[in-house]
Structure formats: C-alpha cells, structure tokens
From TrEMBL:
InterPro entries: CBM5/12, CBM_sf_5/12, GH, GH18_Chitinase. Residues 351-397 form the Chitin-binding type-3 domain. Transmembrane segments: none annotated. Residues 330-340 have a biased composition (Low complexity). This is Chitinase. The keyword NADP does not apply. Residues 1-27 form the signal peptide. Gene3D superfamilies: Carbohydrate-binding module superfamily 5/12, Glycosidases. Keywords: Hydrolase, Signal. It comes from the Bacteria. Residues 328-347 are annotated as: Disordered.
Length: 400
C-alpha cells in the first residue's frame, strides 16, 4: 500500500536543546473532524514540505505524521522510520510546535507499509502500549493512527499486540482519537484485514474509525473506490452487528493522490467523487497519502510514481484542499485571472473564460463554449461543460 515510505531524552533533553516540549496544553483545541481529515505527511523523508505553508494555503489544520516503527536494528522502543529514537527527538517536536503555534495539531501514525512494527518486537499488548504511550506523552497527542498492513497484519501475534495496544491507549488516555487504517480490496479489505476486524471484536475494542486504502489493488478511478467502500460497509455491519448508519459512522477512506505505486491514477475529479460519497454517507474519515506528494512534478504527466510529487497536472497542495473541505473548512481562494483570448463582441460572453488552473468558489461565474456557468462550491480543474452534469459542480446559465 504505502510503499513510498522511507528514502533512505525525554523532556529534559528537549529543554536542554532549546526546543519547547510539545505538551497537550500547547496543542490547539481541535474538534475530531480535523483529525479525521488529517492527511499523511512524512517529516523526515520525501522532501518534507513546510506544514505551515500548506496550512495557510489550504485551510487544513491537522496532519498525520508518519511513521513510528521499531528500531531497524531490533528492539522494543519507538523510532521515527526505524532510525530516529523518539526519546531523543527534537526535530519532530519542533515541527509539531510550529504547527500548533499556527493554530493546528497533529496525529502520529504507527506502522505503514514495510519496516518492523513494535507489535512484532514487543512481547505483549501491554508492552507494546507502554512504548506507544511514550509517543503520546512526549508529543502531547490527542490523536493516533494505527496503520496495520504489510508485513505485520499477516502476523497473528503482532496484530493481537497492535490492536491490544490501541485498546489500552484509548482506555488510558480519555478523549484520545484512535483510527485504524488497513489495506483496501475490491471486497472492501482482504482476508488479513478481516482477521484484524475479528481480533478487535474479540478484544471488545471500537476505534473512532476503520479506514481502508482503496489503491494499489487493481483500482481504476473513483467508481471502483466507492464500490470497495460499499463492500467494506457491509463487512463492518456483518462483523460487528452494526446498522447501516453506525457502520458508516465508523468507516473511513485513505487514498493516494495522483499516480499510485501500481500505476493507477486518482485525479482531482476522483477525489471530488469520493469526497461527495464520504460526506453524503457521513463517513468518519477522509484522508490521503501524502502531502509530500501534493505538488506537480517537473514533468506533470510522468509515467513513474514519485514520493515527492503526484505525477499528474496540479497546483501546489490541491489535494489537501479536499481534506480541508471534508473537515468543514472553506479553503482559501485566489481570484481567477484568466480572461477570454479574444475581446467580447456583441452577443459574446462577457464573463472570464474558464481556466483549468484557477480556483473558483460558490458564486464565481465563467464562460465556456458559448455558455455561462456559475460555481456552486469550491472547484478547480473541473470543466463546466463536462462536469456541470456529472459532478454537479457548475450551474449552466445557458448561452451567453
């Protein structure tokens, strides 16, 4: 799933280094919808963007910092990417402090694709939870994500430890927002994902949401993703005995923007479709991998997958604006500047011509193919002539 992961003590130590300790008191008071929308961001690899710049450009207030792993050399202690001990970290703490100073907050993600997880190296749920508690305490976390996939979700003991640790953290940290992320398939999730759900049921554990990643599994655009979410919805109902509304209220989606590891493409229109589905069905979470990739490559249509750009044409941080909208925010806008290539004549359109790169909000008017259109809500790179009916973004006001 998340294959583009890795390119390569305590409060007193932080204070000695001149870095403010990121306590819960420092964190902004955010409602859970922000943690539910937080996109993944790698703070140490894949050319990390400035999170404050992204916040100011998109309206997004929270990020999912990835990933906490066991040390590459073995052992039961938390590290960033298997190489940076949490106990001695000052860099992630400094980033978190900047985000909080700008009115935002973070969740920290455990696991991801590849690497060794603490559930594999710690001997019990209690031992695993004790190590993750260090992360929660050090950074004053109000949210944490368990990204359970290859290879640990094929290991019964590791899944038992991870799910048990999630349950213990939720119990010992009242109000902690706990999400579970796992692989997506056309059936919703695969056999191992289903076993993970059954493990959670056996432990009596219910997180804020279970989210699937419908990419890297033969998916083709948003319609296949929505179909997988519907299958996962049925699986949640059947596994936990939930009614439909309760299942949707515990279901989420974690996407991949642009070109996936498997060569699938998920463009802006696909994100709009899944956003419409998520909001109309009241899903509990809507996020994606990753902010590091939310910018255009030098070749905007390159046929390779990058950890630092999306491999599709876009403006910077365009996909993050979708997560901000899921949280209920209106992303900051820029005034469209494109004008018709020829001066208007009698009977011609007098409003500006639609531009694929401009950002429009509800009420903005454009012209295309001799018709005038009015935007119903925030949109970008959605052609009025194509999408007024398909996505219902534009209202067709008729011929100019």
């Amino acid at each position: 799933m998340k294959r583009l992961l890795i390119a390569g003590a305590g409060a007193l130590a932080l204070a000695a280094a001149g870095v403010a300790v990121a306590t819960q008191a420092d964190a902004a008071t955010l409602t859970s919808n922000w943690y539910a929308s937080a996109p993944y961001l790698m703070p140490f690899d894949n050319s990390p963007p400035d999170p404050v710049e992204v916040m100011n450009a998109t309206g997004q207030k929270a990020f999912q910092l990835a990933f906490i792993l066991a040390p590459n050399g073995g052992g039961c202690s938390p590290t960033w990417d298997g190489t940076r001990a949490v106990s001695g970290d000052t860099d992630a703490a400094a980033m978190i402090s900047r985000i909080r100073a700008n009115g935002g907050d973070v969740s920290v993600s455990i696991g991801g694709y590849g690497g060794t997880k603490l559930g594999q190296t710690c001997g019990s749920p209690e031992a695993t939870a004790a190590e993750y508690q260090q992360v929660v305490t050090k950074y004053g976390l109000k949210a944490i994500d368990f990204d359970l996939e290859e290879p640990e979700y094929e290991n019964t003991a590791a899944v038992h430890n991870e799910v048990g640790a999630a349950r213990i953290l939720q119990r010992n940290n009242p109000g902690l927002y706990v999400s579970i992320t796992t692989a997506g398939t056309a059936a919703g999730t695969g056999w191992f994902g289903t076993q993970m759900l059954l493990e959670a049921k056996s432990q009596g554990f219910t997180p804020a949401n279970y989210s699937i990643m419908p990419f890297d599994g033969g998916f083709n655009g948003a319609s296949s993703q929505v179909a997988a979410l519907e299958q996962f919805h049925t699986l949640l109902m059947n596994t936990f005995g939930w009614d439909s509304a309760t299942a949707y209220a515990h279901e989420g989606v974690s996407q991949m923007n642009g070109r996936s590891d498997a060569g699938e493409y998920f463009r802006q229109a696909d994100f709009q479709t899944t956003l419409d589905y998520a909001t109309s069905h009241k899903l509990a979470r809507y996020t994606y991998w990753s902010v590091n990739r939310d910018r255009q490559c030098s070749d905007p249509n390159q046929s390779t997958t990058s950890g630092t750009c999306s491999s599709v044409p876009q403006t910077p941080w365009e996909f993050t604006k979708f997560t901000a909208r899921f949280a209920g925010a209106t992303p900051p806008t820029t005034t469209p500047t494109t004008t018709p290539t020829t001066p208007p004549t009698s009977g011609a359109c007098t409003v500006p011509a639609w531009s694929a790169t401009a950002v429009y909000t509800g009420g903005n008017q454009v012209s295309q193919n001799g018709h005038k259109y009015t935007a119903k809500w925030w949109t970008q790179n959605e052609s009025p002539a194509t999408h007024s009916g398909q996505w219902d973004v534009w209202a067709d006001n008729g011929p100019c």
